UniProtKB/TrEMBL annotation:
Swiss-Prot/TrEMBL keywords: 4Fe-4S, Iron, Iron-sulfur, Metal-binding
Protein name, as recorded: Molybdopterin-dependent oxidoreductase
Matching SUPFAM superfamilies: Formate dehydrogenase/DMSO reductase, domains 1-3
Chain ranges of the 4Fe-4S Mo/W bis-MGD-type domain: 19-75
Database matches in InterPro entries: Mopterin_OxRdtase, Mopterin_OxRdtase_4Fe-4S_dom, Prok_molybdopt-oxidoreductase
Disordered as annotated region, ranges: 47-66
Chain segments annotated as transmembrane: none
Database matches in PANTHER family: NADH-QUINONE OXIDOREDUCTASE SUBUNIT G, RESPIRATORY NITRATE REDUCTASE
The keyword 4Fe-4S is annotated on this UniProt entry: yes
Length: 212
């Protein structure tokens, strides 16, 4: 298939057509591919790429095509599990789980102080999420042990970008890949972690003005 032909990646597990396709954006990696989620009987049954999206133009990576299947996995946890006196995990309600968390947290703070509790958050949150987490941790629990993969991963990239280009955002866009003569990747295995981006780079390497 040439780059000029339309390509819509799809993984659909359903008897017949889905009840509806719901517009969405994949958030597994930082490429941000546009997609549609197939829904049947109020369950996710598939995914397909959005051919009109400027980033992926219908393409999806293997993670995007298959990640949704975990939603219906028979061994997926659907309720909290609490370890009993014999060391075995038992199903519990959300109220029981949160009551145990509160009890253990209070006990830890009383016996060892606020810094006996640490919070490790995600890099996929919004500003409001980080603000709330910081308020709970620093003002509420009074612990200074807050961290996230944003510091271990993203912060190093942002600092390098600031030093090199004076801004913490990338100085180019996906469209620039289609025009550039030189593209350098540092510490990024795009073939493994950003397959749609890698395919776009390969299109350009072949001398084609990528249409993806």
């Amino acid at each position: 298939m040439s780059w000029q032909e339309e390509r819509i990646d799809q993984n659909l597990y359903s008897q017949g057509e889905p009840d509806k396709w719901v517009y969405s954006t994949c958030n597994i990696c930082s490429v941000g591919c546009g997609c549609y989620i197939a829904v049947k009987d109020e369950q996710i049954v598939g995914i397909k790429g959005n051919g009109e999206h400027p980033t992926n133009r219908g393409r999806l990576g293997p993670k995007r095509e298959n990640q949704w299947q975990a939603n219906q996995a028979p061994d997926r946890l659907t309720s909290p599990m609490i370890r009993n006196a014999q060391g075995l995990l038992e199903k519990a309600t959300w109220d029981q789980a949160f009551e145990l968390i509160v009890k253990k947290s209070k006990q830890s703070m009383k016996e060892l102080g606020p810094n006996s509790i640490s919070i490790y958050s995600t890099g996929q949150g919004f500003l409001e999420d980080y603000y709330t987490t910081a308020k709970i941790g620093r003002a509420g629990l009074q612990t200074h042990l807050l961290d996230a993969n944003t510091r271990l991963c993203t912060a190093t990239t942002e600092f390098c970008l600031l030093q090199s280009f004076g801004a913490d955002g990338t100085p180019a866009s996906s469209d620039d890949i289609d025009e550039t003569d030189t593209l350098m990747l540092f510490g990024h295995n795009a073939a493994e972690t950003g397959t749609v981006l890698f395919e776009r780079i390969m299109d350009r390497k072949k001398g084609q003005a990528s249409h993806i």
